[in-house]
Amino acid sequence: MGLRTKLLLVALSILALPWAGWQFVRQMETLLRQGQEQALLASAEALARGVAVRPGGLPPAGESWFVHPLDFAPRLDGDAADWRGAAAVPLAFGSPRPWVRAAAGRANERLHLWISVDDASAQRGEAHWPADLHFDRVDLRLLGRGSDLALRLANSGSGPLRVAGEDGLPPPVRIEGVWREREGGYDIELALPQDFSVRAVGLRVRDVDASGTERIAGVAGDGRVGLLPLHGFVESLEPALQALAPEGMRVRVADRDGWVLARAGELRADASEEDILPWRRSLYRALLFRDVTATIDESALARRLVRAEVAAAVAGTPAVTWRRDPAGARLLLSAAVPLEVAGQVRGTVLIERSNSEVLLLTDQAFSGLLGVSLVAFLASGGIILLFATRLGQRIRRLRDAAESALDREGRVTPFPRTAARDEIGDLSRSFARLLDQVAAYTDYLRSLSGKLSHELNTPLAIVRSSLDNLDHARLDPEARVVVARARDGVERMGHLVRTMSEVTRIEHAIEAAEAEDVDLRRLLEDCAGAYRGLLAPRTLALELPPGALPLRASPELLVQALDKLVDNARGFTPEDGWVRLSATGEPGGVRIALANQGPRLPETMRGRLFDSLVSLRDKTQRGEGAAHLGLGLYVVRLVADLHRGHAEARNLPDGDGVEFSLHLRGMPPSL
């Protein structure tokens, strides 16, 4: 991973800024939501107090019977299908499982009742039969403004409803209705006269089986049928609600069972529909309102409110809830508070509003945060990128200078120095000082061989002359053996000095070499004639291309390099072995190869053969016992480097020898 990449990754820490800003936006949105919830609860409580001042029309605190407002009078046929859902949630009586259901509705100022009884054993009779007879019947009690009317409903079969008073005589009011038998029971649908005002209704159903056992369900009373007060939609309450309802909000008053008693106001259109882009509005709802999962599945004209906040308000606890509308285009906040009169809960007040203000404020905060974060990220990222680029360039220059500090001959090139006062500047100056010391030590090592050879010549001459004088003296045989050994040592030391002097001369010759155009093929042919006599009795094979091999080179240095290779091959090739000298052209230059039969090269030494003072010869391969310093192949490498090439050694594929090759491109034209 590059330095710029690392710094760019470090620059990603700037993303903590928008993250922190986003947390701030979320916290602000939470506070805004809490503020809206508290404000809506306060509005709902104020509305509840305003409604409680005029409790007329509100349901009683205890149990009561809701009368549904019907759009039109249903047909009296015993079927509640045309009640438009008013009978979907009826009152239920009976135990252990309810077997009597009843619903009340009002249309054209007439009260309609629907009663459904589950009765598996029909014991029917007529309403005017004596009361002491056992048969299935319904006792109905109606409490008007100034009268309390008790009626008996009973039919022996389907048809017009038979109605009688408690004494079996015709009732004082005309009641229309139908008794409809059905499988497993019967249904009753009736309508009271238009001018008969009813405040409470009592209901008791008697079911007699074949054995005469009787079961009773309904509203219990003290010997009589109990009464349930009636209440319903209170249109007179709507003007007061309309006056008290805040603008842009919807208010509904419901009884303890959730039936709507009055409604007023409408939800304001969501301003965010036009002011906020759709994708941003969806983003806010997905990220900020993830906890809002409930969806409103009721219409604005719903007759009953089945909501958790309404149930909590009926229990006496104010509650707020966020919901999505069915289309998911906006969020709605609703608050429900108990409607109390004289300390008793008579119903609930539900108020709703849209959340457009929250989204608008969130959008403004998010837009500002996004703009500031983007500018900060681009600016800091650009600065870090420029800094990383500049730093990377300086480090690359330092790397390139370090790689080229030593050439192939081991000479130290000048290292660039910088005046920068940072860590990279200190590092470059430290490298420069180190390489200056290496250069001084390298120059000392280069001149050491010449100095040693010059200084050793005089002592060696003194020792040699002294040994010559001893040869003329009268010495015993043992002393002469010792003198012979000393003379042999002196000759070895002289050979070492001459070899070191030769390497020094070759190095100076390389420095002063002049290039000329050479036909390498002719040069190798001339050298091969001399090498055959030197290598005898070994055989020398010469493999050259038919055409000329032109090369700009120093012929004297090439011959010296070939001499070192041939001398090396002569030392390792057995007397009945072979040596092969070849040359071929290759892209950009020529290749000279000298292969010989002999031992394989150790793999660990292949990369070090052309270094100075490295030799693999043992005493049997040193020719007349002469010392071998391992400088021959080092000279070959120097000559190859002068000709912009390189030298290499490898074992032959068949394993019976080695091959040394020179890859030469030629000396530069300036030489």
Automatic annotation (TrEMBL):
The chain crosses the membrane at residues 365-389. InterPro entries: HAMP_dom (IPR003660), HATPase_C_sf (IPR036890), HATPase_dom (IPR003594), His_kinase_dom (IPR005467), HisK_dim/P_dom (IPR003661), HisK_dim/P_sf (IPR036097), TCS_sensor_his_kinase (IPR050428). Keywords: Kinase, Membrane, Phosphoprotein, Transferase, Transmembrane, Transmembrane helix, Two-component regulatory system. It holds the Pfam family HATPase_c. It catalyses: ATP + protein L-histidine = ADP + protein N-phospho-L-histidine. Residues 389-443 form the HAMP domain. GO terms for molecular function: phosphorelay sensor kinase activity. This is histidine kinase. The lineage of its organism: Bacteria, Pseudomonadati, Pseudomonadota, Gammaproteobacteria, Lysobacterales.
